[in-house]
C-alpha cells in the first residue's frame, strides 16, 4: 500500500476508498470486490488498486452479470476493451433471465462487472479505512 504524497495521489486515494465504501462488497472476508455497470467508475477503481494498493493488473479477476437478451461475446468484448483487460481474466458470465423492461436495463446495457482481487490483507486494510 502506497501512502499518498501528492494532491493527485490523495485524490485517487479518496476516490478509491470512497468507491469501495459505497460500491464495494465489505461482507466478503477474503477479497476486495466492487461491482458496477459504469466503465469509467470501474477504470478509476482499478487505477486505485494498481497505483495506490500495488496490485498487478494481471492479478485482477472479473465477474460479468448480464440479461439473456444480451450477447455474451459482445459484452465481454466491450468490457475487455474499456477496462484494458484479457477475456481470460473473466469468470464464467452469469446470465439472468430477462424480465420486464425497466430503467435498470438501460443503465446496464453491457451488464454489471465485478472487480475481484483475492487478498485478505488488502481487504482488511480497506475496511479499516472506512468510517463505520
Q: Topology, pairings included?
A:
Elements: H1 7-23, E1 31-36, H2 39-51, E2 61-67, H3 72-83, E3 94-96, H4 103-107, E4 112-118, H5 120-129
Parallel strand pairs: 2-3
Antiparallel strand pairs: 1-4, 2-4
Helix pairs in contact: 1-2
What are the defining features of this structure?
132 residues; alpha+beta; four-stranded mixed sheet; 5 helices; 43% helix; 17% strand; globular
Q: How would you write the strand order of the largest sheet?
A: 1-4-2-3
Helix count equals 5
The beta-strand count equals 4
Q: Could you state the oligomeric state of the chains shown?
A: single chain
Protein model, in words:
The protein has helices at residues 7-23, 39-51, 72-83, 103-107, 120-129, and strands at residues 31-36, 61-67, 94-96, 112-118. The longest helix has 17 residues, at 7-23. The chain is 43% helix and 17% strand. The chain is globular and about 45 Å long. Helix 1 packs across helix 2. It has a 4-stranded mixed β-sheet. It is built from 5 helices and 4 strands, in the order αβαβαβαβα.
Amino acid at each position: 500500500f502506497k501512502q499518498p504524497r501528492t494532491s493527485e495521489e490523495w485524490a485517487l486515494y479518496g476516490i478509491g476508498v470512497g468507491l469501495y465504501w459505497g460500491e464495494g462488497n465489505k461482507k466478503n472476508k477474503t477479497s476486495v470486490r466492487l461491482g458496477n455497470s459504469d466503465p469509467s467508475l470501474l477504470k478509476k477503481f482499478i487505477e486505485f488498486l494498481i497505483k495506490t494498493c500495488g496490485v498487478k493488473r494481471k492479478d485482477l479477476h472479473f465477474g460479468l452479470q448480464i440479461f439473456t437478451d444480451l450477447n455474451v461475446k459482445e459484452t465481454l468484448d466491450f468490457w475487455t476493451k474499456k477496462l484494458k483487460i484479457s477475456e481470460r481474466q473473466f469468470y464464467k458470465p452469469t446470465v439472468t433471465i430477462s424480465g420486464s423492461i425497466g430503467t435498470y436495463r438501460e443503465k446496464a446495457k453491457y451488464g454489471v462487472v465485478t472487480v475481484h482481487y483475492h487478498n485478505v490483507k488488502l481487504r482488511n486494510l480497506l475496511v479499516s479505512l472506512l468510517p463505520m
